[in-house]
């Protein structure tokens, strides 16, 4: 086989240097930042060598292995011997606390809890108020500008004037540096603290939390009101337009839901103005229901109807986001704190027991022998409190829905909780009080891709109260069933199947099994 030998076969070299030193030698021109490897490696490179040793296979001394493996080249060794700085931070950044009055963090033990609660430690914010009372120069600064002229003494918990830096014109005893002050961020959902931070960014010379809320000699009850007076909040024109457009085609219930979402997540500047402008539109369905119930079409909208709409809005805000209207800058309905929380529980208990008793007395005799056997078995399981998982399998049109309706009516007539769920909205219309599982239990949408799915229900949620005493009837698939099983075990603190609750599944296997086609 013939080979063509050309310059690609030859290692680059310098003919002159190779002839002079009688060896293969090459010269490279290092013209990039990568040339540091030549300085640190080739210049100080010693002879090639290998180090090995024999030891027991069970020896594993981690410290020795680290010391042997630690390599310090000559440059790093010299740098450390002469104690040159390894790193540098510039400029200095000082974190500034943001908290409400008496809202600072306190560390305590069982022995000093009362003392620490009575005399909480000073923070950068309270020290800022204190120094503004005695230092004329500090009163000219914003809170975030303090670290530029003052140092924070962590041991004595106070600000002290800097002794080094550039002189400040007009203040011979004040020195300035390029230090930065960084206030901790606050989420708008923590509303009062958020508006307090907004005031600290814009207001000079505050001497206390009260003076921070004072505008033109008027002490405002909230920091939000002070921000509104100072025009620090943007207008709500875009939210006004959003609700106005929704009124054209949306129902009053949908408008209330939209309004609840806006005030809970979008934090408008003045939600009260939006409420007073559109409260009649949000209350039209309530007025219609009152006219039908009272059979009096002359009833006009009034404050009581607005009050009912306000209650419904607060229920939605609390159940969706855990916020009451008073925390969102809205007038709060006068009721107990946990009334909105118990709304979900009341929904399952507001059935007319006398009417349900009549339904049970009328329909139980209509059950055939097989239906009656199933009915008695389920009632015995509920009475014994043993729970269990049951599956009602029967062809379509044989009375499964009728039987489940009787079971639901019997349980609810006894003032117990029976919840019915279905996979689709169409199926949910077949049973009284039935809802879709995704809506009621907050099931994840990607059930089939999650290894161990659970319902998005916490122990402190409204649905958890309902689930703690639930007897459920389901028309649902296996993934949702597994999610419910894990959730009920967690909510009821019971390791039994479905946490000891009685679960009745209903369906027709004949409609789910595919035929064997040849």
TrEMBL record:
GO terms for biological process: DNA recombination; DNA repair; telomere maintenance. The keyword Disulfide bond does not apply. Pfam families: PIF1. Its cofactor is Mg(2+). It catalyses: ATP + H2O = ADP + phosphate + H(+). Keywords: ATP-binding, DNA damage, DNA recombination, DNA repair, Helicase, Hydrolase, Nucleotide-binding. Gene3D superfamilies: P-loop containing nucleotide triphosphate hydrolases. One of its GO terms (molecular function) is 5'-3' DNA helicase activity. Residues 367-512 form the DNA helicase Pif1-like DEAD-box helicase domain. Its EC number is 5.6.2.3. Belongs to the helicase family. PANTHER family: ATP-DEPENDENT DNA HELICASE (PTHR10492:SF57), PTHR10492. This is ATP-dependent DNA helicase. It comes from Arctia plantaginis.
């Amino acid at each position: 086989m013939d080979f063509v030998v050309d310059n690609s076969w030859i290692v680059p070299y310098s003919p002159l240097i190779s002839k002079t030193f009688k060896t293969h030698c090459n010269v490279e021109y290092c013209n990039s930042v990568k040339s540091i490897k030549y300085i640190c490696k080739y210049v100080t490179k010693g002879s090639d060598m290998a180090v090995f040793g024999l030891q027991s296979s069970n020896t594993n001394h981690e410290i020795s292995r680290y010391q042997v493996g630690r390599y310090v080249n000559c440059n790093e060794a010299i740098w450390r011997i002469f104690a040159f700085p390894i790193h540098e931070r510039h400029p200095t950044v000082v974190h500034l606390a943001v908290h409400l009055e008496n809202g600072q963090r306190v560390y305590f033990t069982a022995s000093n809890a009362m003392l620490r609660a009575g005399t909480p430690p000073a923070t950068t914010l309270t020290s800022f108020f204190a120094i503004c009372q005695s230092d004329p120069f500090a009163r000219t600064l914003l809170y975030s500008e303090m670290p530029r002229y003052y140092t924070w003494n962590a041991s004595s918990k106070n600000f002290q004037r800097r002794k080094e830096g550039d002189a400040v014109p007009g203040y011979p005893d004040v020195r300035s540096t390029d230090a930065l002050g960084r206030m901790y961020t606050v989420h708008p959902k923590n509303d009062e603290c958020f508006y307090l931070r907004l005031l600290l960014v814009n207001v000079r010379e505050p001497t206390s939390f009260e003076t921070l809320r004072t505008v033109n000699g008027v002490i405002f009850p909230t920091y939000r009101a002070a921000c509104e007076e100072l025009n620090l909040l943007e207008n709500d024109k875009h939210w006004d337009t959003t609700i106005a457009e929704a009124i054209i085609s949306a129902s009053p219930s949908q408008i209330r839901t939209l309004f609840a979402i806006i005030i809970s997540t979008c934090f408008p500047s003045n939600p009260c103005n939006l409420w007073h402008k559109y409260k009649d539109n949000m209350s039209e369905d309530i007025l219609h229901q009152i006219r039908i119930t009272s059979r009096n079409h002359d009833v006009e909208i009034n404050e009581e109807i607005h009050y009912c709409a306000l209650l419904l809005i607060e229920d939605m805000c609390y159940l969706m986001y855990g916020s009451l209207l008073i925390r969102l800058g809205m007038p709060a309905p006068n009721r107990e704190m946990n009334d909105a929380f118990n709304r979900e529980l009341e929904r399952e208990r507001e059935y007319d027991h006398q009417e349900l008793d009549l339904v049970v007395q009328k329909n139980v005799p209509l059950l055939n022998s097989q239906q009656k056997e199933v009915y008695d078995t389920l009632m015995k399981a509920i009475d014994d409190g043993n729970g269990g998982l049951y599956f009602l399998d029967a062809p379509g049109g044989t009375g499964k829905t009728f039987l489940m309706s009787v079971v639901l009516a019997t349980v609810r007539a006894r003032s117990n909780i029976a919840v019915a769920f279905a996979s689709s909205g169409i199926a949910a219309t077949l049973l009284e009080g039935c809802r879709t599982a995704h809506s009621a239990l907050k099931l994840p949408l990607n059930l089939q891709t999650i290894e161990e799915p659970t319902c998005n229900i916490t122990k402190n949620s409204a649905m958890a109260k309902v689930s703690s005493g639930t007897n459920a009837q389901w028309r649902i698939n296996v993934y949702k069933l597994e999610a419910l099983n894990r959730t009920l075990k967690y909510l009821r603190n019971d390791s039994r199947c479905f946490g000891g609750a009685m679960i009745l599944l209903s369906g027709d296997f004949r409609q789910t099994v595919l035929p064997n086609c040849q």
